[in-house]
């Protein structure tokens, strides 16, 4: 047995072997990654970490897995392209736990996603009195259990007439304020041209009878002039028509743009029948020591664990134990402040990732490769240790754990570190260091240097020019918070995850000061058709330039117009939609991913086709363009650290951090502005964080105000002012526990951030 083990040790089976990897920016990367260990990938953003881990290893693992399937099944599966690499060996099944948000569906909750809710249903069917029957009677997603009024959603949507109608306008002036009822539309004709009403009369002057007819009339037909004659239409009042078309199907069914329009004219509130409990009377009447299943779902997980501990009926011991174990895992990743009833679509990316992580912890599978994308996102330094324990637990169960991460405390627990670099994009793509965390710290790489350098507090903080006050904020967990945010300085808003930072800043502050420019990671539209050139509208200048040179129309040089490859319609890829899975994309064979047709590519400027220009990085392109506005835009991209992006790179391939900086570059032109950033260091290497801080300094010194929600202590140290929320998360948080300078924070009692900062400065 011993010799076998010794033999295995030297055998390459103990390593994932990768050679000659050239995916994206990789320059022939060779790696041996120890199996059954925790490996952390470091390096500046854009250096190629994701290209190794996600675009090469994870894709290849998925592809190899598919090859093992019988031909007739494989035929129906997505076709994965083989990543660009020589050898890829000893991969095991890879599970990617990323920050993609979960569940656009209103029925998807923390309880359903973690499969804890079904356990509670079993619990109530056995121990609730009176029992409502078997366990599906407690399911809001089952017709037998759901509240009929709200169909198990817990909320109802009410049309707000004063928002839908403009009383000071006539039908002809567009009194019905909804795009699909705009003057001239088919739906408008039903009212404006029905002959029932004076279309030039202001609504406020309508008689009671006419108003009733307009809003609720029914049971007769009206004539409507169509293109080919007169049609008879069943008349239906505006309220019924609107409700039937836009409310009854459920807001989830509306496209996002339409949904926003609908949300403008409705209010959503708790269901008047079940009061948010989502279940019917029988299910809600069933209680355990006074609480029903809706009460259990509404409790914070930390409290629910205690509540379950008080149940001691022998018949339900196993299910209680199972539920408690699962809940404790959620608590362990720092999410004890969530409730099981919380809709998954309201979770942040970091919260979603940690919940997904929890799901895998409960499984007994071993021998897998787990891949994490910056799991420390959204975590306060205090909670990183607990998350580290989870990564180690996954490893100790016999799995290989690969983590892309910038956080020093996570890097420190790695068995093995792979540092990518030296730069970003074309200047990266190489392995600059491989070994232990201690070795990395001694190394000469950018990461090594950053790990060695410790920054202290700023010598001097700026003085505010004024103050923006948030008054009596009570949203979510906020406890009637009134707090001032100084202007003309850099303010960090800190606190453990769930303490209320986003609620206070991204929701309440921005609602009270709507002129603030919010720069978060989500708000860049990311279709496969957008890229840095289209986003910043450099594409427009590019098209003009080619049009002038060639005498053709600008549209020929757009892949969204006449220039599009006919096969893929200008997408460069063919998308295959699969039920229950993420859609799969393959490179278009007709244009080889170039998006353009041959006609467009016949023309060149300065020896370059439009595709060649889109393949240039922002930095390179500044020599190509001669008009000042475009050069300014390109310079801004470089200024925010995105000079390495090519103009044509689809925005869908950008990381959250890159997307955020792109948005920043696009909006930087505004001056005298309040900027709000939500965790801007996400995806940023320590050296990128430095650059971001320089940028903040430039913004503030240029007369702007910057507010940053942040955990990164380097940002906190650099701030002029700190507002710390807490003391804990959820119902235990929601108060301002500290306001002052970073130096004062380091001495503050009762603040987790203060304690972490003091420890860091030591
Ligand atoms: P990191 O994970 O270190 O931030 P990435 O591996 O995501 O870096 O990116 C390395 C380089 O490859 C960057 O220049 C990035 O913009 C580029 N890149 C990433 N994905 C794609 C893609 N799908 N197509 C083209 N370029 C890409
Ligand atoms: P932080 O930004 O400090 O991590 P949040 O502001 O996201 O904290 O959350 C503060 C509290 O508000 C938490 O208890 C969280 O669960 C709750 N919360 C946040 N967003 C929502 C939402 N959309 N619906 C219900 N509760 C929410
Ligand atoms: Zn209801
Ligand atoms: Zn094509």
Describe the structure.
GO terms for molecular function: ATP binding; ATP hydrolysis activity; DNA binding; nuclease activity; zinc ion binding. This is UvrABC system protein A. Its main location: cytoplasm. With 762 residues, the protein is α/β, with parallel strands linked by helices. α5 runs antiparallel to α14, α15 packs parallel to α16 and α26 packs across α27. The chain contains 31 helices and 23 strands. β7 and β8 form a beta hairpin. The chain is globular. The structure holds adenosine-5'-diphosphate (ADP) (2 copies) and zinc ion (2 copies). One zinc ion binds next to loops.
Number of helices: 31
Largest sheet: 6 strands, mixed
Structural shape: globular
Small molecules held by this entry? adenosine-5'-diphosphate, zinc ion
Tell me the radius of gyration: 29 Å
Distance between the amino and carboxyl termini: 49 Å
Please give the number of β-strands. 23
| Strand line-up across the major sheet | 5-10-11-3-12-13
What amount of the residues lies in strands?
A: 15-25%
Overall residue-averaged pLDDT value: 89
Low-confidence stretches: 1-11
How helical, in percent, are the residues?
Answer: 25-40%
Broad structural category:
alpha/beta
GO molecular function: ATP binding; ATP hydrolysis activity; DNA binding; nuclease activity; zinc ion binding
InterPro entries: AAA+_ATPase, ABC_transporter-like_ATP-bd, P-loop_NTPase, UvrA_DNA-bd
Region (Disordered): 747-762
Family: Belongs to the ABC transporter superfamily. UvrA family.
């Amino acid at each position: 047995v011993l010799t076998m083990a010794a033999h295995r040790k030297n055998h390459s089976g103990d390593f994932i072997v990768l050679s000659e990897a050239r995916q994206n920016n990789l320059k022939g990367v060779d790696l041996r990654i120890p199996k059954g260990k925790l490996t952390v990938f470091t390096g500046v953003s854009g250096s190629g970490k994701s290209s190794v881990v996600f675009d090469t290893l994870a894709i290849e693992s998925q592809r190899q897995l598919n090859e093992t399937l019988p031909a007739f099944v494989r035929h129906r599966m997505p076709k994965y392209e083989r990543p660009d690499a020589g050898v890829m060996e000893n991969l095991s099944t890879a599970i990617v736990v990323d920050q993609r948000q979960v569940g656009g569906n209103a029925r998807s909750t923390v309880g359903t996603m973690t499969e804890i809710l079904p356990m509670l249903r079993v619990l109530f069917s056995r121990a609730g009195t009176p029992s409502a029957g078997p366990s599906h009677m407690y399911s809001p997603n089952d017709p037998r259990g759901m509240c009929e009024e709200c169909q198990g959603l817990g909320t109802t949507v009410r049309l707000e007439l004063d928002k839908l109608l403009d009383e000071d306008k006539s039908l002809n002036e567009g009194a019905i304020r909804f795009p699909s009822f705009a003057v001239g539309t088919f739906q408008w004709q039903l009212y404006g041209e029905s002959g029932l009403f004076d279309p030039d009369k202001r609504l406020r002057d309508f008689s009671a009878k006419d108003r009733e007819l307009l809003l609720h009339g029914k049971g007769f037909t009206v004539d409507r002039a169509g293109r080919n004659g007169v049609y008879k239409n069943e008349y239906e009042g505006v309220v019924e028509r609107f409700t039937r078309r836009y409310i009854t199907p459920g807001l989830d069914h509306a496209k996002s743009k339409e949904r926003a329009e609908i949300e403008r004219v409705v209010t959503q509130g708790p269901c008047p029948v079940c009061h948010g409990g989502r279940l019917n009377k029988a299910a809600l009447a069933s209680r355990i020591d006074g609480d029903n299943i809706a009460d259990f779902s509404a409790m914070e997980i930390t409290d629910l664990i205690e509540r379950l501990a008080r149940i001691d009926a022998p018949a339900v011991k196993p299910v209680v134990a199972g539920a408690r174990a699962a809940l404790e895992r959620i608590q362990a990743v720092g999410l004890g402040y969530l409730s099981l009833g919380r809709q998954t679509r309201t979770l942040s990316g970091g919260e979603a990732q940690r919940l997904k992580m929890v799901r895998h912890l409960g499984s007994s599978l071993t021998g897998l490769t787990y891949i994490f994308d910056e799991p420390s996102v959204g975590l306060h330094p205090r909670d990183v240790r607990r998350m580290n324990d989870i990564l180690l637990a996954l490893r100790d169960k016999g799995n290989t754990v690969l983590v892309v991460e910038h956080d020093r405390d996570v890097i420190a627990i790695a068995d093995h570190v792979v540092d990518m670099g030296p730069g970003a994009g074309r200047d990266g793509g190489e392995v600059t260091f491989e070994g232990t965390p201690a070795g990395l710290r001694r190394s000469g790489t950018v990461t090594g240097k950053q790990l060695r350098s410790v920054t202290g507090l700023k010598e001097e903080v700026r003085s505010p020019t004024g103050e923006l006050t948030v008054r009596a904020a009570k949203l979510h967990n906020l406890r009637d918070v009134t707090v001032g945010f100084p202007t003309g300085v850099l303010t960090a808003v800190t606190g453990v995850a769930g303490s209320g930072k986003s609620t206070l800043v991204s929701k309440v502050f921005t609602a009270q000061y709507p002129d603030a420019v919010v720069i978060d990671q989500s708000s860049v539209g990311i279709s496969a058709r957008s890229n840095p050139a289209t986003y910043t509208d450099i594409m427009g200048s590019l098209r003009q330039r080619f049009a002038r040179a060639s005498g053709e129309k600008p549209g020929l040089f757009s892949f969204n117009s006449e220039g599009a490859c006919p096969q893929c319609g200008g997408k460069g890829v063919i998308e295959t939609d699969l039920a229950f899975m993420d859609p799969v994309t393959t490179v278009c064979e007709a244009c080889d991913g170039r998006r353009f047709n041959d006609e467009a590519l016949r023309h060149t400027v300065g020896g370059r086709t439009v595709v060649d220009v889109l393949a240039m990085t922002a930095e390179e392109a500044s020599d190509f363009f001669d008009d000042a506005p475009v050069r300014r835009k390109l310079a801004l991209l470089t200024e925010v650290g995105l000079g390495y992006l090519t103009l044509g790179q689809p925005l869908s391939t950008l990381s959250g951090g890159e997307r955020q900086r792109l948005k920043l570059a696009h909006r930087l032109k505004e001056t005298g502005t309040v900027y709000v950033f939500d965790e801007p260091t996400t995806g940023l290497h320590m050296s990128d964080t430095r650059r971001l801080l320089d940028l903040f300094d430039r913004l503030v010194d240029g007369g702007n105000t910057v507010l940053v929600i942040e955990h990164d202590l380097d940002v906190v140290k650099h701030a002029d002012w700190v507002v710390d929320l807490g003391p804990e998360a959820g119902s235990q948080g929601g108060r301002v526990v500290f306001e002052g300078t970073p130096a004062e924070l380091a001495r503050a009692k009762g603040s987790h951030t203060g304690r972490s900062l003091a420890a860091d400065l030591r």
